[in-house]
Specification:
elongated; Heat Shock Protein 90; six-stranded antiparallel β-sheet; single chain; five-stranded mixed β-sheet; 3 domains; 12 helices; alpha+beta
Length: about 500
């Protein structure tokens, strides 16, 4: 193993962190106990003494504060735990804390071993001993020529250092305990990353690749392992995703082919079932013509008309079945355009004018109201045609009234709802859902005399389902009303 790899290993990092931590703790204890505390105390008191010297000098320079200077000096002594003596130009004492200060000053002046710890042009600070009591003495010349003496005890700090030494020993023990706890936390931090990797691999075994390992800045073995797992997870996820996609496409193809096959079977079944009657009629009347069952011209003409009529019905039914199959194909797209629904209904009414007059039906429709819709005009035309044809075939006299009412209104969903009402018999509530099925025979509108194929309402249903719009039928006292929604632009 290379040196660089050893340095980046988890074991080496843990050992290094703990070693540095213990050394740092020992160093801090030694500095605080032997050097830093006393040195800082001396420095702090020296700085305070110089500051007080300047303040006292300013007091004497200020005529407004001169009368209260003794009170100010007393406050300074109490606040800073020091003693002050001031001599005037004639060496007369003008302020003294207590008489012991004079002995301290005399001993200091006669003590040749006193150590000067600070001096400048006007100030000298000395370190002295007095009856085994250590103190600092500041001697300073004020701006007015007075001499200032400040005595600062140092002995209490020695006692404080002893107390602090014992305290620091206790702190040392506490730090040692904390170091052990810290080592445990650090170890746990590393194991958490390993547990994280374990959880990720468990999810991967269940084909769940949502969770990723977050790399740190350590660049150790765990990071390398996590990075490799992330790479493997991405590749597996991509591969499985592609397999799922291919599988879904295959299932979709199979489903579409099955659906098309079912539609073909249904188409063949429907056609074969519905064409039995017209084929039988055509065959019977054709055989009658061949065998000259009726020799007169009028009978032969009737036979021929029946054959043509049944052929037309067969053609119409096959075309509608093909159209219904196309509508039921999900991939078929409609070409939507904006057009006037009123104009389309007027055109359908014109086509049905002859039948409407023959059946003496009154039509109620507002031809002046323009209604813009957005849909496939071809398919909406089929809906209107089927609703109108169905209404004409089922329209009967009710309470001396035989009429068809066509109207439109705007719905809450910002669509146009088309209503086609006709007087006549109600639809049985038990079959209201069945009338939308192809070739449903329960409705009198699907008889052969009227030429119905039984596919019209099934086409309406398919068109509405493609647009995901509502459609249906309601019974009223004297008739039936069909409705459907059409989109607006």
């Amino acid at each position: 193993m290379k040196i660089e790899e050893k340095v980046k290993s988890v074991r080496f990092r843990l050992f290094g962190i703990l070693s540095i931590l213990i050394i740092l703790i020992i160093f801090i204890i030694i500095v605080i106990n032997n050097v830093a505390l006393e040195t800082f105390f001396t420095y702090s008191k020296t700085k305070t003494a110089k500051k007080i010297s300047n303040e006292i000098s300013e007091y004497y320079n200020s005529i407004f504060q001169y009368s209260n200077i003794k009170s100010e000096l007393r406050q300074i002594e109490i606040k800073n735990d020091m003693q002050i003596v001031i001599e005037n130009n004639f060496e007369e004492i003008i302020y003294i804390s207590n008489s012991e200060m004079l002995d301290s000053i005399a001993k200091m002046q006669s003590n040749i071993t006193s150590k000067t710890i600070y001096s400048d042009e006007n100030t000298v600070i000395k370190d002295n001993m007095d009856n085994k009591n250590r103190f600092m003495m500041l001697i300073s010349k004020l701006d007015n020529g007075y001499t200032l003496y400040i005595r600062i005890p140092i002995s209490p700090i020695k006692e404080y250092v002893k107390i602090s030494s014992r305290t620091l020993m206790m702190i040392g023990v506490l730090i040692a305990l904390l170091s052990g706890i810290l080592a445990s936390i650090i170890a746990k931090k590393f194991t958490q990353r390993i547990v994280k990797l374990n959880n990720i691999t468990k999810k991967m075994s269940k084909l769940d690749f949502s969770e990723k390992f977050e790399e740190s800045d350590l660049e150790d073995e765990i990071d390398t392992l996590g990075n490799n797992i992330n790479t493997m997870s991405d590749k597996l996820e991509l591969t499985i995703s592609q397999l799922r996609k291919n599988n879904n496409e295959l299932e979709k193809d199979i489903e579409e082919k099955t659906k098309l096959d079912d539609m073909r079977k249904q188409f063949i079944s429907d056609v074969s079932h519905e064409l039995k009657t017209p084929i039988a009629l055509i065959q019977g009347y054709a055989e009658g013509l061949l065998e000259n069952v009726n020799s007169d011209e009028e009978s032969r003409k009737f036979y021929a008309e029946v054959i043509v009529d049944e052929s037309n019905k067969m053609d119409k039914m096959v075309k509608e079945l093909l159209e219904l199959m196309k509508l039921e194909q999900e991939d078929r797209k409609f070409e939507d355009v904006e057009f006037d629904l009123t104009e389309l209904i007027k055109e359908e009414l014109r086509r049905q004018t002859k039948t409407i007059k023959e059946k003496k039906i009154e039509v109620d429709f507002d031809e002046t109201k323009k209604v813009k819709v957005y849909a496939s005009q071809e398919h909406i035309e089929q809906v209107v045609n089927n609703y109108l044809t169905n209404a004409i075939k089922n329209c009967k006299v009710k309470e001396k009234e035989k009429k068809i009412v066509i109207r439109t209104e705007k719905t809450k969903e910002n669509k146009i709802r088309l209503y086609v009402y006709n007087t006549g018999n109600k639809i049985d509530e038990t079959v209201k859902d069945k009338i939308w099925d192809r070739f449903y025979k329960g409705d009198s509108s699907r008889n052969r005399d009227d030429g119905g194929t039984g596919i019209g309402l099934a086409i309406v249903k398919a068109i509405m389902n493609r647009y995901k719009n509502e459609y249906g039928v309601k019974n009223f006292k004297n008739g039936v009303e069909f409705y459907c929604d059409i989109n607006r632009k």
